[in-house]
Amino acid sequence: MKPHNPAVARRVVTSDSVRVESGGRILVEGSATECLSTEVPAASATYRPTVEASRSAEDASASTKMSGVWTFTSARPTPKARRSAPYELGVD
């Protein structure tokens, strides 16, 4: 298997798409580079990003298409909820 090289990976992707949904609405849809930093409301909500990428068979040793779907809930923490961890991390 070839070592991972992000610069090479970007060149061999022939198509990609990203869609972020919340509450039955599409918040953003486009290529991965267009959707890298998408602002979402601060209120608590469930988000579902979907990512797909394709590459040619000659550039792929295992598969020509990748897709991933994540679902998570997010909200801006209240000032009271913003606390330090109850422990200290040691430094070597």
Oligomer: single chain
The overall pLDDT average reads 76
Number of helices: 1
Characterize the biggest β-sheet.
5 strands, antiparallel
Described by the principal axes of the CA atoms, the overall outline is elongated
Low-confidence stretches: none
* Class by alpha and beta content: mainly beta
Give Rg in angstroms: 18 Å
First and last CA, distance? 35 Å
Helix content: under 10%
Q: Order of SSEs, N→C?
A: HEEEEE
Q: Strand-residue fraction?
A: 35-45%
Number of strands: 5
Could you characterize what this model shows?
- This protein is elongated.
- Strands 1, 2, 3, 4 and 5 form a 5-stranded antiparallel β-sheet that branches.
- The protein is mainly β.
- 8% of the residues lie in helices and 38% in strands.
- The longest helix has 7 residues, at 6-12.
